Amino acid sequence: MNILDTTLQRSFPTVMVPRNEAVAEMQAAGERLLIAENGVFIEILRPWLSLVRQIAEFNVRTAVPYGRITPSTRLLCETIPADLVGAFARMARDAHPMETGAWIVWSPSTQAFRLAPVGIVTHTGGSLKYQPPALAADEVLVMDCHSHGRHPAHFSLTDNEDDRHDVKMSLVIGNCDRANPSIAVRLCAKGIFEEMERAPATWYQAARVPEAV
Protein backbone atom coordinates (compact mmCIF):
# COMPACT_ATOMS: atom_id res chain seq x y z
CA MET A 1 0.00 0.00 0.00
CA ASN A 2 1.11 3.56 -0.66
CA ILE A 3 2.98 4.93 2.36
CA LEU A 4 0.71 7.99 2.54
CA ASP A 5 -2.41 5.81 2.66
CA THR A 6 -0.78 3.60 5.29
CA THR A 7 -0.01 6.64 7.43
CA LEU A 8 -3.54 8.01 7.05
CA GLN A 9 -5.14 4.68 7.95
CA ARG A 10 -2.93 4.29 11.01
CA SER A 11 -3.94 7.77 12.19
CA PHE A 12 -7.65 7.12 11.54
CA PRO A 13 -8.22 3.34 11.58
CA THR A 14 -11.41 1.42 10.87
CA VAL A 15 -12.55 -1.30 13.28
CA MET A 16 -15.12 -3.99 12.58
CA VAL A 17 -17.27 -4.28 15.72
CA PRO A 18 -17.26 -7.87 17.06
CA ARG A 19 -20.64 -9.52 17.48
CA ASN A 20 -19.83 -11.69 20.50
CA GLU A 21 -17.72 -9.43 22.68
CA ALA A 22 -17.15 -5.75 23.40
CA VAL A 23 -15.03 -3.78 20.97
CA ALA A 24 -11.51 -3.18 22.31
CA GLU A 25 -11.08 0.20 23.98
CA MET A 26 -8.92 2.88 22.40
CA GLN A 27 -5.48 3.02 24.01
CA ALA A 28 -4.52 6.57 23.06
CA ALA A 29 -6.13 9.87 22.12
CA GLY A 30 -7.38 9.98 18.55
CA GLU A 31 -10.29 8.94 16.34
CA ARG A 32 -11.42 5.75 14.63
CA LEU A 33 -14.34 4.51 12.57
CA LEU A 34 -16.49 1.68 13.90
CA ILE A 35 -18.34 -0.43 11.33
CA ALA A 36 -21.32 -1.97 13.11
CA GLU A 37 -24.47 -3.86 12.21
CA ASN A 38 -26.46 -0.67 12.76
CA GLY A 39 -24.26 1.77 10.83
CA VAL A 40 -20.96 3.60 10.77
CA PHE A 41 -19.82 5.39 13.92
CA ILE A 42 -16.96 7.67 14.85
CA GLU A 43 -15.24 7.13 18.18
CA ILE A 44 -13.22 9.99 19.64
CA LEU A 45 -10.94 9.88 22.65
CA ARG A 46 -9.37 12.90 24.31
CA PRO A 47 -7.90 13.19 27.81
CA TRP A 48 -11.15 14.91 28.87
CA LEU A 49 -13.75 13.16 26.69
CA SER A 50 -14.78 9.78 25.28
CA LEU A 51 -17.44 10.03 22.56
CA VAL A 52 -19.21 7.72 20.10
CA ARG A 53 -21.60 9.08 17.46
CA GLN A 54 -23.26 7.60 14.39
CA ILE A 55 -22.20 9.32 11.17
CA ALA A 56 -23.80 7.06 8.52
CA GLU A 57 -26.40 4.34 8.13
CA PHE A 58 -26.89 1.60 5.55
CA ASN A 59 -29.32 2.29 2.70
CA VAL A 60 -29.97 -1.37 1.89
CA ARG A 61 -30.82 -4.33 4.12
CA THR A 62 -27.52 -6.12 3.62
CA ALA A 63 -26.76 -8.57 6.42
CA VAL A 64 -23.75 -7.01 8.13
CA PRO A 65 -22.10 -9.66 10.34
CA TYR A 66 -20.91 -7.29 13.05
CA GLY A 67 -22.06 -6.23 16.50
CA ARG A 68 -24.14 -3.19 17.36
CA ILE A 69 -22.94 0.13 18.77
CA THR A 70 -24.78 2.64 20.93
CA PRO A 71 -23.85 6.35 20.86
CA SER A 72 -22.28 7.46 24.12
CA THR A 73 -20.67 10.42 25.86
CA ARG A 74 -18.32 10.11 28.82
CA LEU A 75 -16.78 13.19 30.41
CA LEU A 76 -13.34 12.31 31.80
CA CYS A 77 -12.81 15.59 33.65
CA GLU A 78 -14.84 17.49 36.21
CA THR A 79 -17.58 19.91 35.17
CA ILE A 80 -16.25 23.19 33.78
CA PRO A 81 -16.16 25.65 36.71
CA ALA A 82 -18.78 28.39 36.50
CA ASP A 83 -16.32 30.95 37.85
CA LEU A 84 -14.18 30.56 34.70
CA VAL A 85 -17.25 31.25 32.55
CA GLY A 86 -17.83 34.32 34.72
CA ALA A 87 -14.21 35.40 34.28
CA PHE A 88 -14.57 35.18 30.51
CA ALA A 89 -17.83 37.14 30.65
CA ARG A 90 -15.92 39.93 32.40
CA MET A 91 -13.24 39.78 29.68
CA ALA A 92 -15.97 40.03 27.04
CA ARG A 93 -17.56 42.97 28.82
CA ASP A 94 -14.21 44.78 29.08
CA ALA A 95 -13.50 44.19 25.37
CA HIS A 96 -16.97 45.32 24.26
CA PRO A 97 -17.81 46.48 21.60
CA MET A 98 -14.94 44.41 20.16
CA GLU A 99 -14.91 40.62 20.16
CA THR A 100 -12.41 38.72 22.29
CA GLY A 101 -11.54 35.12 23.06
CA ALA A 102 -10.02 32.67 25.53
CA TRP A 103 -9.64 28.94 26.08
CA ILE A 104 -10.66 27.00 29.15
CA VAL A 105 -7.97 24.34 29.46
CA TRP A 106 -7.55 21.34 31.76
CA SER A 107 -4.58 19.36 33.04
CA PRO A 108 -5.10 15.60 33.50
CA SER A 109 -2.18 15.43 35.94
CA THR A 110 -3.33 18.23 38.26
CA GLN A 111 -7.08 18.01 37.46
CA ALA A 112 -7.03 21.83 37.35
CA PHE A 113 -8.85 24.12 34.93
CA ARG A 114 -7.72 27.62 33.99
CA LEU A 115 -8.78 30.42 31.65
CA ALA A 116 -6.11 31.16 29.03
CA PRO A 117 -6.64 34.35 26.96
CA VAL A 118 -5.87 33.99 23.25
CA GLY A 119 -3.37 36.17 21.43
CA ILE A 120 -5.52 38.59 19.44
CA VAL A 121 -4.30 39.28 15.90
CA THR A 122 -7.25 41.44 14.81
CA HIS A 123 -10.71 42.01 16.23
CA THR A 124 -13.74 44.12 15.43
CA GLY A 125 -17.33 44.22 16.62
CA GLY A 126 -18.11 41.28 14.33
CA SER A 127 -14.93 39.26 13.88
CA LEU A 128 -11.96 37.82 15.74
CA LYS A 129 -8.67 36.39 14.53
CA TYR A 130 -6.30 35.03 17.13
CA GLN A 131 -3.34 32.84 17.98
CA PRO A 132 -3.95 29.94 20.41
CA PRO A 133 -2.65 30.51 23.94
CA ALA A 134 0.51 28.79 25.14
CA LEU A 135 -0.35 25.67 27.13
CA ALA A 136 1.65 24.26 30.01
CA ALA A 137 2.78 20.63 30.30
CA ASP A 138 -0.19 18.34 29.63
CA GLU A 139 -2.93 20.99 29.41
CA VAL A 140 -5.59 20.41 26.75
CA LEU A 141 -8.33 22.56 25.28
CA VAL A 142 -11.76 21.81 26.71
CA MET A 143 -13.79 24.92 25.82
CA ASP A 144 -13.11 27.58 23.19
CA CYS A 145 -14.73 30.88 24.21
CA HIS A 146 -15.38 34.00 22.18
CA SER A 147 -17.66 37.00 22.48
CA HIS A 148 -20.07 38.70 20.08
CA GLY A 149 -19.90 42.24 21.43
CA ARG A 150 -23.36 43.78 21.59
CA HIS A 151 -24.82 41.09 19.31
CA PRO A 152 -26.73 38.04 20.64
CA ALA A 153 -24.84 34.82 21.32
CA HIS A 154 -25.14 32.35 18.44
CA PHE A 155 -23.00 30.16 16.21
CA SER A 156 -22.36 31.68 12.79
CA LEU A 157 -21.42 30.03 9.51
CA THR A 158 -17.88 31.22 10.18
CA ASP A 159 -17.97 29.48 13.58
CA ASN A 160 -19.19 26.28 11.90
CA GLU A 161 -16.30 26.35 9.45
CA ASP A 162 -13.75 27.16 12.15
CA ASP A 163 -15.03 24.40 14.46
CA ARG A 164 -15.65 21.53 12.04
CA HIS A 165 -12.25 19.85 12.51
CA ASP A 166 -12.08 20.29 16.29
CA VAL A 167 -13.04 18.31 19.37
CA LYS A 168 -14.07 20.78 22.08
CA MET A 169 -16.86 22.63 23.76
CA SER A 170 -17.55 26.03 22.24
CA LEU A 171 -18.97 29.00 24.15
CA VAL A 172 -20.24 32.35 22.88
CA ILE A 173 -21.06 35.28 25.15
CA GLY A 174 -23.27 37.91 23.52
CA ASN A 175 -25.11 41.09 24.45
CA CYS A 176 -22.02 42.15 26.40
CA ASP A 177 -23.49 45.62 26.97
CA ARG A 178 -26.18 44.14 29.22
CA ALA A 179 -26.13 43.08 32.85
CA ASN A 180 -27.36 39.62 31.81
CA PRO A 181 -25.45 38.58 28.68
CA SER A 182 -26.70 35.86 26.36
CA ILE A 183 -24.88 32.53 26.21
CA ALA A 184 -24.65 29.83 23.54
CA VAL A 185 -22.75 26.59 24.09
CA ARG A 186 -22.25 23.44 22.03
CA LEU A 187 -20.15 20.33 21.66
CA CYS A 188 -17.98 20.19 18.54
CA ALA A 189 -16.70 16.78 17.46
CA LYS A 190 -15.14 16.48 14.00
CA GLY A 191 -18.00 18.21 12.19
CA ILE A 192 -20.72 17.11 14.63
CA PHE A 193 -22.34 20.07 16.39
CA GLU A 194 -24.64 19.51 19.36
CA GLU A 195 -25.91 22.78 20.78
CA MET A 196 -27.33 22.89 24.28
CA GLU A 197 -30.85 24.28 24.53
CA ARG A 198 -29.70 26.37 27.48
CA ALA A 199 -26.40 26.77 29.32
CA PRO A 200 -26.27 25.73 33.00
CA ALA A 201 -27.97 28.18 35.36
CA THR A 202 -24.72 28.61 37.31
CA TRP A 203 -23.05 29.94 34.16
CA TYR A 204 -25.71 32.63 33.75
CA GLN A 205 -25.31 33.55 37.40
CA ALA A 206 -21.54 33.79 37.04
CA ALA A 207 -21.81 35.91 33.86
CA ARG A 208 -24.27 38.38 35.36
CA VAL A 209 -23.06 41.84 36.40
CA PRO A 210 -23.27 41.98 40.22
CA GLU A 211 -25.78 44.47 41.55
CA ALA A 212 -24.30 47.49 43.28
CA VAL A 213 -24.71 47.43 47.05
UniProtKB/TrEMBL annotation:
GO terms for biological process: proteolysis. InterPro entries: DUF2016, JAB_dom_prok, PRTRC_protein-A. Pfam families: DUF2016, Prok-JAB. GO terms for molecular function: metal ion binding; metallopeptidase activity. It comes from the Bacteria. Residues 4-75 form the DUF2016 domain. The keyword Hydrolase applies. Keywords: Hydrolase, Metal-binding, Metalloprotease, Protease, Zinc. Residues 81-181 form the JAB domain. NCBIfam families: PRTRC_A. This is PRTRC genetic system protein A. It comes from Paraburkholderia rhizosphaerae.
